[in-house]
Write a structure and sequence with these properties.
Number of strands: 23
Shape: elongated
Strand content: 15-25%
Strand order of the largest sheet: 3-2-1-4-5
Oligomer: single chain
Distance between the termini: 28 Å
Largest sheet: 5 strands, parallel
Helix content: 10-25%
Structural class: alpha/beta
Number of helices: 12
Radius of gyration: 27 Å
Length: 431
């Protein structure tokens, strides 16, 4: 694959946190054209433009899914599909030959083992990293408590239960729907990995899970790779056949030894930590699909990630001109306001003229030079006197941005155009 061979890549489903991270990882690659598809309305509809986003009955459990999905792949001439959900990764791995595009996923056996914890514990029984697993009630003794029950198929701590006494044990806990293991009280790690097409483990990146919400690490810190964690990663990689990004989770037992909680053969959202340190997991995976080997320049500095919920808007306001204030709007407390200048450049790219409308005191051009602001960013620069009303210069079909409530009120009342304070400019930005 070269930069001239622009590959059309579909992220599916497109709206989850890990899917949005893959989008961010690939959005600026000049040899990739990104598409998203989902079976429901979610954040992806705000992330993609209409020509690159598709919502339909894309549910693997529905009859005719493959036919519908392949029609999408052919219509949009998709080259590569990146699955972002464990069940979909498993389904596409099992039906790889029937899918009308390459799929960036490990083989079907690996995907199956990763999805089912009972299979995972059986396959890795001799790897020395699994927690003790109780298959029958007779295997449990009084001194084994507390225990920990979790569903065979689950993620994000859904359905888990600590079992403190024999009275809490039920026959259902020993069924194929659950796994009953030793309780692990210690620290938890997620380990991000990358395996090439020849099965070589090329990257191992452990990170702590410092603050967890909704099953997601909202704060995570890159930590040094120890020989213990390296040996576990190599053992897992030797027992399974991964391709591209994958990760596993560990937790310390009462003696401080790390034991395996789960494995996933897809990318996680918090892998963004190591991407920002130099490892572009999805892009390296696409290269492997095309028989090429990529490389990474990994920054070894200490790094911590903190995340929050993100808000996007779709505002039904049409405008063909922008009027923008300077002091305390474009320049706030002696610094360029990042969201406002981003919007100015967005308008510049879209061919929407921006008029700078200001009562700035002093030499405006000289002050703009000090901020490396080019007058060419603006269609016009109007310096008004103290008694010259801004509303007199605002034309219909425009919008007005100013930090002053009095100015916004006057423009709204006299000109009838939408007005925005500085904190609301985010509403005007595309993702």
């Amino acid at each position: 694959m070269t930069e001239r061979e622009r590959k059309r890549v579909l992220i599916f489903p497109a709206g989850a946190e890990n899917a949005l991270e893959i989008y961010d990882a690939l959005r600026y690659r000049v040899d990739i054209e990104l598409f998203g598809a989902s079976g429901k309305k979610d954040f992806a509809a705000y992330q993609y433009d209409a020509a690159h986003y598709i919502e339909d009955d894309f549910y693997i459990q529905h009859a005719g899914f493959l036919e519908c999905f392949n029609a999408l792949l052919r219509t949009y001439r998709i080259d590569v599909v990146i699955p972002t959900h464990d069940d979909i990764a498993l389904f596409l791995a099992q039906h790889r030959e029937a899918v009308a595009a390459k799929v960036l996923v490990s083989d079907a056996r690996t995907a199956e083992v990763c999805r089912h914890k009972r299979q995972m514990l059986s396959v890795l029984a001799d790897a020395g990293c699994c927690p003790h697993w109780y298959r029958t009630r007779e295997e449990v003794s009084e001194g084994d408590f507390p225990l920990f029950r979790k569903p065979d198929v689950s993620a994000g701590a859904v359905g888990v239960q600590r079992v403190d006494t024999p009275d809490e044990l039920t026959d259902a806990m020993f069924s194929e729907e659950y796994v009953l293991c030793e309780y692990l009280p210690g620290k938890e790690l997620t380990v991000d990995c990358f395996t090439d097409r020849q099965g070589r483990l090329k990257f191992i990146g452990p990170r702590s899970r410092d603050r967890i919400q909704m099953g997601i690490a909202f704060r995570s810190t890159a930590v040094p790779l120890t020989e213990e964690v390296r040996s576990i990663a190599e053992a897992i990689n030797a027992h399974l056949s991964f391709l591209g990004a994958w990760y596993f989770q560990l937790r310390q037992d009462a003696q401080g030894r790390y034991k395996l909680l789960e494995i996933s053969c897809r990318q996680s959202g918090t892998m963004t930590l190591y991407r920002h340190l130099g490892v572009n997991f999805p892009y390296l995976g696409i290269l492997e699909l095309y028989g090429q080997s990529g490389s990474s320049l990994v920054l070894t500095a200490s790094c911590q990630l903190e995340r929050r919920l993100h808000t996007a808007f779709r505002l039904d306001v049409a405008y063909d001109h922008v009027y923008l204030d300077y002091d305390d709007t474009l320049i706030v407390e002696g610094r360029i306001c990042a969201s406002v200048i981003r919007f100015v450049y967005q308008c510049h790219d879209d061919g929407i003229p921006v008029t700078l409308l200001t009562r700035h005191e002093g030499d405006l051009r000289q002050d703009m030079d000090a901020y490396a602001l080019s007058p060419r960013l603006f269609d016009r620069v109007l310096c008004l006197s103290a008694d010259d009303a801004k509303a007199a210069h605002v034309m219909p079909g425009s919008i007005f941005i100013d930090n002053s409530f009095a100015e916004r009120q006057a423009v709204q009342q006299q000109c009838g155009v939408p007005v925005f304070d500085v904190d609301a400019v985010d509403m005007l930005l595309r993702e």
